[in-house]
């Protein structure tokens, strides 16, 4: 990266920070309208006008990357097992929709390959791909190859909480933008140094951090990083995050957020954070 550029310049041009705009990022799809991390939730996120869809990736016992948040399959499929100890066939046959509502009975846990194929058919939406837990470079190879195969590399950001996971993404795909997730104040110790070492484009903190610490988002933005806090679902949270100076909001209610943004937000408000 040239010395005069900013870390967020690593992002595809369509995803770079824009003054006065807070991007809409659908948390696990539109998980207020459909069961999270399913095709129904992805469809609903597009219908809501989301700029990006955030998804979670884990690996099954037979080494297949799948789209599921929890380490356990119990909450969303009713199967009391660990994802890492469950085969992709068993997980693929599970009902991942009935827990949300009877109208979604039979919804499946997508494989990463299937999600990428869906993404290729919906070119207007970006992807924020969270790799859950610790991933090695060897494990990261497959998902990265899938993103390239389906032409999603130019509208995808890779992220994780674990530094070794973000480092693995850097080593396997230095051209793909990355973000580091931060969950608490302790994660702020030495943060700027870690962001430089990992060569990330953004830092995505838990939502209360940029609200409780308004200077955090400003500091990150001044250093050139994009900032997407999670998970913010109410107008007062959206307003506080916007004034703090975030570039996007990860939310379970992308449709409501879009409406709020269009009716209540303006570039002049965003300048309060500058």
Automatic annotation (TrEMBL):
Residues 1-34 are annotated as: Disordered. Transmembrane segments: none annotated. Residues 22-261 form the GP-PDE domain. It holds the Pfam family GDPD. Residues 7-33 have a biased composition (Basic and acidic residues). This is Glycerophosphodiester phosphodiesterase family protein. The lineage of its organism: Bacteria, Bacillati, Actinomycetota, Actinomycetes, Pseudonocardiales.
């Amino acid at each position: 990266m040239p010395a005069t550029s900013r870390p967020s310049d690593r992002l595809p041009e369509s995803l770079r920070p824009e003054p006065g705009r807070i991007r809409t990022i659908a948390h696990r799809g539109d998980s207020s309208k459909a069961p999270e991390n399913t095709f129904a939730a992805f469809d609903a996120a597009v219908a809501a006008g989301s700029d990006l869809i955030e998804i979670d990736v884990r690996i099954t016992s037979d080494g297949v990357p799948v789209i599921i948040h929890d380490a356990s399959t119990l909450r969303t499929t009713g199967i009391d097992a660990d994802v890492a100890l469950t085969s992709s066939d068993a997980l693929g046959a599970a009902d991942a929709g009935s827990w949300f509502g009877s109208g979604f009975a039979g919804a499946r846990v997508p494989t990463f390959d299937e999600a990428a194929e869906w993404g290729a058919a919906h070119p207007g939406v970006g992807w924020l791909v969270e790799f859950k837990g610790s991933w090695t470079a060897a494990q990261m190879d497959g998902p990265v190859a899938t993103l390239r195969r389906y032409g999603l590399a130019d509208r995808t950001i890779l992220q994780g909480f674990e530094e070794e996971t973000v480092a693995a993404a850097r080593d396997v795909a230095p051209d793909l933008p990355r973000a580091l997730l931060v969950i608490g104040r302790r994660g702020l110790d030495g943060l700027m140094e870690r962001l430089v070492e990992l060569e990330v484009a953004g830092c995505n903190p838990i939502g209360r951090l940029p609200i409780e610490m308004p200077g955090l988002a400003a500091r990150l933005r001044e250093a050139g990083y994009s900032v997407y806090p999670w998970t913010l679902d109410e107008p007062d949270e959206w307003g506080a995050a916007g004034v703090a100076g975030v570039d996007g909001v990860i939310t379970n209610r992308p449709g409501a957020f879009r409406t709020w943004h269009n009716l209540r937000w303006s570039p002049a408000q965003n300048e309060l954070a500058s």
